[in-house]
Structure formats: C-alpha cells, structure tokens
C-alpha cells in the first residue's frame, strides 16, 4: 500500500517539476514566481476537492455522490449572477477579488450551516433528507440564476459566463494566502475526527453499535466539507466531476478500507490529473480548450460508466 502511495507521489512531483521547468528559456526570475502561484492553486484546489469528496462519500455510503449535490456550486453561481444583476459588472464586489472571494465563501458556509441546523434540529432526520433538500435548493438557485441571466445586459452576461467555468489562469495571490490559512485551520480542526472515518464507512447502524457518536461526528464532517468546497469553488470556480473521478480511482488503485491511504491516494491522483491536464492544455492543445472542459468530459464519461456498472450488478 505504501508503495502505491510513493509511486503516485513520485509521478505528482515529476509532473509539478515538468510544469515548473519546461520551456523556461533561462528567464527564471520571471517564470518561476508566476508558475509557482499557478501550481499552488492547482495543488490546493485538487487536494480540497479530493479530500472533501472522499469524506462525503464515506458518510453517505455512496460512491457516485459529490458535495456539489447539496447545492453549494449552484449557490456560488447564484451569488455571482445576483451581484451582476443588482449592481452591474463594474461594482466593487466583482472588481475586488478579495471581497468577492470572502463574500462568496462566507455566504456558502452560512447556507450550509443554516441547512444543517434546520435539518438536524429534529430527531429522526437523516443525511438522505439533507441531500434531498440540497438538490431542491440547488435547482432553485440554478433557476433563479438563469432567470436573471436572461434579463441582464449581454456584455454583463459575458462576465457571468466567465464565472461559471473553472479557471486556473486568473488566481489572485491574495486569494491563495487566505485559502491556505483557511485550509490549515480546517485541517487542524478535522484531525481529531479523522479516526472515525474507517468505522463510518461500515454504515450508520454499525457505527452507532461500535460506540461512534454518529450524528455529532457527521455534522462536523458536513460543515468541514462545506467550508472546503466553498473555498475551492470561490477560488477557481465549479468543477463538477473532478471529485467523483479521483475518489473512485483512489478506491480502485488503493483497494483498501483505510482512509489514511484512500485520502492520500485521492489527493495525489487529483494533483496528477490537474497538473497533467494543464500540461496537455498548454503544450498539446495550445490553450484552444480549458482544463475544466477536459476534466468534466472525462469525469462525465466515467460517471456514466459507474452507473452502467452498478446497473449490471443489480
């Protein structure tokens, strides 16, 4: 198992080194700082999405679900569209990336917190009820966003369109610093609960019988997931199928129940996918397409494969 982790780590480091050094032309002072910011954004986003999806699939006991199903991605697009609809594309909230980032992340975390508090307030509510309500809110946010996009000026609609697709080319350095600090804080908080993941993967009833405070732990996990997804979405935009792709690949590659290996493997596979994808976009397609298009295409095909595979097993 450790050998697989080391192989994935070596491949990830090799791709990162290739990205940093290829075609530098001796202009190290100009090239390295700019490529370092971009690679840091890629590694941070890939790690966040892989980690949050792996934990989400464990607590839901479902390997075709991702955190976006609870409507956070849709809420992000709704916030961006609402600000443009209400104030215009030149408003300070959109012009200032720091304000936009903090506002979007704060509103998404607040939404998730209210959703969990409301749904878990009564006894007997389970996580599947939460997912159902999340789908309803996600559909509502998408409908409201579409309604406002039809009414706004075509030039401002282009601004909204740019926000709807993930981009690793326009990451602000200040956003990276804030994101790193938030992720480190979340990781420190999450560390004491990570020991419960292996038992939670057995299911709710088995976890309770083994003495796990199920509702208490799952609530903390969901809040951590909401914060991480909010950071990733506000940092580069929504990437729908990346988490689904890397989490299932990690299960197939690692072939274990131990989450210390599954999470490490999924994070490394996510980094390999994103860095490799950026190299392909830049060196093979010469920016004629975007990384999000490639990831969503491959992830969508893999999602269909998983559905057909599960259908045959029935």
From TrEMBL:
It holds the Pfam family FecCD. It is a multi-pass membrane protein. Keywords: Cell membrane, Membrane, Transmembrane, Transmembrane helix, Transport. It comes from the Bacteria. It is found in: Cell membrane. Coiled coil: none annotated. The keyword Membrane applies. The chain crosses the membrane at residues 6-27, 39-59, 65-87, 99-120, 126-152, 173-191, 221-249, 261-281, 287-308. PANTHER family: FERRIC ENTEROBACTIN TRANSPORT SYSTEM PERMEASE PROTEIN (PTHR30472), PETROBACTIN IMPORT SYSTEM PERMEASE PROTEIN YCLO (PTHR30472:SF19). Belongs to the binding-protein-dependent transport system permease family. FecCD subfamily. This is Iron chelate uptake ABC transporter family permease subunit. It comes from Brevibacillus brevis (Bacillus brevis).
């Amino acid at each position: 198992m450790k050998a697989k982790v080391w192989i994935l780590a070596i491949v990830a480091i090799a791709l990162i080194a290739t990205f940093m050094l290829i075609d530098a032309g001796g202009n190290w002072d100009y090239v390295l700082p700019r490529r370092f910011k971009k690679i840091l954004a890629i590694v941070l986003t890939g790690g966040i999405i892989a980690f949050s999806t792996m934990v989400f699939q464990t607590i839901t006991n479902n390997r075709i679900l991702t955190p976006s199903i609870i409507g956070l991605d849709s809420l992000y697009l709704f916030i961006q569209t609402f600000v443009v609809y209400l104030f215009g594309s030149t408003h300070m909230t959109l012009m200032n990336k720091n304000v936009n980032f903090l506002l979007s992340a704060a509103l998404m975390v607040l939404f998730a917190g209210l959703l969990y508090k409301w749904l878990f307030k009564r006894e007997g509510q389970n996580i599947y009820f939460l997912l159902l309500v999340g789908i309803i809110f996600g559909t509502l946010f998408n409908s409201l966003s579409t309604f406002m996009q039809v009414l706004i000026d075509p030039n401002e609609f282009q601004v909204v369109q740019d926000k709807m697709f993930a981009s690793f080319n326009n990451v602000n350095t200040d956003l990276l610093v804030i994101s790193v600090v938030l992720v480190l804080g979340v990781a420190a908080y999450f560390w004491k609960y990570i020991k419960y993941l292996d038992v939670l993967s057995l299911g709710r009833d088995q976890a309770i019988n083994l003495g796990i405070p199920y509702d208490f732990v799952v609530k903390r996990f969901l809040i951590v997931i909401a914060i991480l997804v909010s950071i990733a979405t506000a940092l580069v935009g929504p990437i729908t199928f990346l988490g689904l792709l890397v989490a299932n690949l990690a299960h197939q590659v690692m072939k274990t129940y131990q989450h210390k290996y599954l999470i490490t493997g999924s994070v490394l596979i996510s980094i390999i996918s994103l860095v490799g994808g950026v190299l392909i976009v830049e060196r093979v397609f010469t920016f004629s397409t975007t990384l999000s298009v490639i990831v969503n295409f491959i992830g969508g095909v893999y999602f269909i494969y998983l559905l057909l595979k599960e259908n045959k097993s029935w």
